[in-house]
Amino acid sequence: MKRLNKIYVFHEYGAVNHYRALNWYITNQDDYEIVYREFSLLRKFVKGVITFDLELIKKQFVNLAFIIGLLFSSKNTIIVGIAPYDYRLAIFLPLLNRHKYFYHTSNTYWDYSIYPKRLFANTRILKGIWKQFIENATGVFCVTKKAANGIKSYYNVSNVVVVNHSIISAYNLEFDEIKFLVHQKRINCLYSGRITQAKGIAIIFKLVESLSKEHFSFTFVGDGDMKQELLEFIKNKSNCSYLGFIKNPELIEVYKNADVLLQPSLKTQKWEELFGMSIIEGMACATIPITTNHSGPIEIIKHEKTGFLFSEQDYLNETIKILESFVVDNDQMIQIKKAAYIESKKYRAENIFKKWNEYLHI
Questions:
Q1: Is the dihedral of CA 8, 9, 12, 17 positive or negative?
Q2: pTM
Q3: Whole-angstrom distance, CA of residue 77 vs CA of residue 208
Q4: What is the mean predicted confidence (pLDDT) over 186-190?
Q5: Is the four-CA dihedral 69, 71, 73, 75 of positive or negative sign?
Q6: Which of 61, 121, 138, 282 minimizes the number of CB atoms within 10 Å of its CB?
Q7: pLDDT value at position 1?
């Protein structure tokens, strides 16, 4: 049997959808395979025990065996997805140093202002470990230009390439597969993502209350800690619906039936919208994104051409204006829908893979 070259993705939670372009390439040839391993072992193991999920428990032993195996092997190709400035890197770096590792990140702030992992983050030792990890990496893959510029500003690295997330091949729609309805009097608005406060769900509630039921419908897709609040809000609202959590590729039909995608994300001390997978998926279906101007969306959307970008403060009022203008002028909406669709082609897997391969050379 032919021995396959392995590329390991070593990530806290797996995040398979972040590596769609690699999967696209590897599933279309016979020399490589991609193997996912996770390092959030204890939390997943406890969850498996509590829920009696034997497969989840078994998976953690597989992950543990991989980590231990790094000590007894060398020169594996490993893509590491770890949030700054996670203290667990102190455990993994001595193991990774034996291998050809790459760092993959979407983080845009490297000045210790906005970051999720704060335990021990500001200690001299951990700062040194992170510096060594980044500067000794074979390559650094950044999801956005801002992430790449940020990491180059604080670390001595030159081998950095911007690799956006990509859409799955099912989203490679032909132009005639998309609906461009003229003279429509109802605009279909969609929210797809986590149902949480940080995603701006409360702002969408205000949009629902501010806009005509006759001219606007609202569809919600996803799950999160505001799910019950959402269900309570839309109860008895004839122009609102909740479809629950939907996976790809079934989500494509939802995007195709929507005119606009609402993404009013709100910055927190630990998070902002660093890319926006639903944005490029929606654009591939000619759904117009209307987002807050976080670092991810601002690199994807060309304001007033392929979508709209507003500040958090202005999002509600400006979005109301845009949506009401679409009812009056369908032609403007259709032109932007077409432009969004065309722009989305750059996020197809075959195009994004070329960026991955600048350093992987597979």
A1: negative
A2: 0.88
A3: 49
A4: 94
A5: positive
A6: 61
A7: 44
